[in-house]
Amino acid sequence: MTSGRARRSGEHAYVRGVGNTRYTKKADRTVEELAAHAISAAAEDAGIQVGEIDGIIVYHGHIGTDEVISHMGLPDVGLRAIIDIGGASAVSALQMASLYVLGGAAENVLLIRAMKGSSGGRRKAERKSHLPSQHIRRNLEYVVGCNTPSQRYAFLCRRYMHEYDLTRAHLAEIALAARAHANLNPDAQMYGRPLDLETYLSGRVIAEPYLLYDCCLETDGACAVIVSAQPGREREGRPAVAILGTAEGHADPPDDFLSRDPFLAVGLEKAARRLWDSIGLAPEDMDAAMVYDCFTFEVAHQLEAAGFATPDTIGRLIAEDGIRLGGRLPVNTHGGLLSEGHMVGLNHVVEAARQLRHTCGARQVDGARHIAVTGWGNLGDGSISVLGRQSGSS
């Protein structure tokens, strides 16, 4: 299935197909059945047979490659990989998949997330941690009761709010914008469930300053992306979605943010500099952004780290320029992890592809041609990609 050809200068890989289930709190199907639905939808969208998938990239703790091969009856998978940088993994997988298909190691690489994150095995405090440097976790953090992402990231949020003009109102707007967008998305877990400011403010404290609605969902569902060296069949004038560039970066040190100096520096800063330098585009050229939103503050932090604002202007971008549809930079038009569903960021890639095809209906960003997608993982790993509506498409 591989061509063995070398990559030519200026050549891009493509997001050829995307698919997903509806996202729910309690699915009546197995994880394998959820995955099969999303994979089949992505293959149909790509215009290929499921059996033509010959590469798979997964994320640890979710459905594995053997389960996918067995359940889908894939006849000839020539490569399999796991990317293990938390929520930054899905965007980084675009880079790995691009290298595979442009280097001839595979023709159609599947990126898959499938889980029962709500009704299945819950994320208990005693679960095995995948964070690095467990000696730090056990000896310094666990002993004082710091054992959840909300607790760790709350340190960053509170410090940022102390140093810069970021307020509770800005966090609220991020949550409310996500929910407003999700209510335009029938597949979203929170579709049909509006959120207003009073309800947001009444949410219980999870880890100060995070309230209930500052935190992402637990979700049952699946989504899939197929990356190929060819854009795929053109149906009804559908444009190609090119992966214009992807980069990842780590903070220093990557395994302990409490001793980090500067404290608020994260890997996305490095990744974004490399990306913008390599593709000849800038943040102001983006028509929308899909930003990894495990918590509301991480949206603000990443927008700043990726160059969309400075610490002194991030509040204005959120509250005045606008991150809702019709604003200067629409963010997470599907609802994101906060309101569509928690697929560890791969659903952000799905949404970006659909926005660039102009098939999102009521939540469509007018004239979208370039969209940035970010990932946030572990203790500050970062990734960023720009997808583009291929030149010449209407």
UniProtKB/TrEMBL annotation:
Pfam families membership: Thiolase_C_1, Thiolase_N
Annotated Thiolase N-terminal domain residues: 25-191
Family matches, as SUPFAM superfamilies: Thiolase-like
Residue intervals of the Thiolase C-terminal domain: 264-382
PANTHER family referenced in this protein's UniProt entry, alphabetically: ACETYL-COA C-ACETYLTRANSFERASE, NON-SPECIFIC LIPID-TRANSFER PROTEIN-LIKE 2
Full protein name: Lipid-transfer protein
Originating species: Pseudonocardia zijingensis
